[in-house]
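Discussion board: Methods & Data

I've been asked by a reviewer to show the raw model output for two of the constructs in my manuscript, not just the figures. I'm not sure how much to include, so I'm pasting the format here to get opinions. Each protein appears as its amino acid sequence followed by a line of discrete structure tokens. Is this the kind of thing reviewers expect to see in a supplement, or should I convert it first? Here is construct A:
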Amino acid sequence: MAKAYHGCWPTMITPFTADNKVDYNAIKGLVEWYIKRGSTGIFAVCQSSEMFFLSEQEKLDIAKAVVDAAAGRIKVIASGHTSDDHQKQIDELGKMAEIGVDAVVLVSNRMAKKDEGEDVFCKNADDIFRQLPNVTFGLYECPYPYLRLLSDDFLTDSAKTGKLVFLKDVSCARDIQKRRVNLVKGTNLSLFNANTVTLLDSLIDGYDGYNGVMANFHIDLYAWLYENFAKEPETARELMDFLSVAAMIEARCYPVSAKWHQNAFDVPMTTVTRSKDPALLNENGIHEMECLHRMEIAWRKRLGLAL
């Protein structure tokens, strides 16, 4: 039986208007697109959402808009605790919980500085759990501004004590993923892989789903993979090869690329972002987006998915 948190989830992009304000109409459209294409949850207010470039109020307003648009049809989780100050982070987390998200997501690199050890990380985590005892938490190994992977001991304790229900794994390493499956076995902690290349193997090993940037381009293909990898292993492996190569498009000035792709083929929005200059998506990059879309259509036809 699938855990409460499972399936394919986007790391949601934040649409902006031409004058650099949050585009709430596009957010509604994007939520509907995710649901129509097979998403079982949404990770709003994350790195893809440009959370380090949002005001505190914008983070809360975006999360509320996503919760309202989803209207209970799928789960919504959100992060947004980007402050350096520990107590300020707790304040951010508490306010986000009040919005009504299903879980509030901790960011591993916010809980200890790069040069601080596991003792500091665990001390700060325990303090968060102590001060917010009624909040349901997930955790994201966000690679910006630096990557801090969870220790086996912390993950095991969090799983067995029920402190976490969701982990977005950014290890990109099969040996770590295999070990983590065993560490959380028999608990309610769900393991989500952010990495496309290792996704199929991690699902075979026991991961609970995918939570990555490419869900903003073709989440329906990931959803098919999740639902059918055991039943149609040969097609799943072939699809995985395509998805792995397609995921290289992330290097093409994401999230500008995802916004261009959405605007051209799915949900109207600008390419305005706060983390990158939209002009970085040049003519060659646009041709790459068009090539990607044609291949998406070919795979949808092959798998019998809606175009």
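Construct B, same format:
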Amino acid sequence: MTKGLYYYLREAWKKPDAKDVHSRMIEWRKSEAAVVVEKPSRLDRARGLGYKAKRGFVVVRVRVRRGGRKRERAQVKGRKSRKQTIRKTLKMNYKWVAEIRAARKYKNLEVLNSYWIGQDGMYYFYEVIMVDPSKPEIKNDRTIKWITKGANRKRAERGLTSSAKKSRGLRGKGPNKKVRPSLRAWDRRGK
């Protein structure tokens, strides 16, 4: 059976060339935290998540710092305790954080979906597919015009994107999926 272009693109991303990845990471680290890119790095993944090469679709590369969120306590007089620095675990996955940051920077666009493109010791890199709901090309496209409705405003901030729903525990069943109706209503036992 013959295999198409997207099959080979997918296979190439499974084992990328080390030198190519290294040079790409150096370039991405030097750029801003959220940058509009001309076309997706992973065309197969972007197309699978709803991207189309037409007006109204924008791809944003977002850089998110890895590691827990450190918060320091207020300094008190006297001795320093080892417990004065608190490390909090963020209860959102990094992809969701990337989507929110992209949505906040580009307020006129809506987040459709996102995918991983790389990571190094300090950062995760994601590409976020965003849609401009005011464009007539989007309003007339029957597969994507649902995003122009008012109910889909600020999808990323409200936790309605795919990665946000996964992080909220709205997929599947099992012992570690109890996050509804809320974490507080469940005696703060968490995820």
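Answer (T.O., handling editor elsewhere):
This is acceptable in a supplement if you add a one-line summary per construct. For B, something like: The two ends are 44 Å apart (CA to CA).
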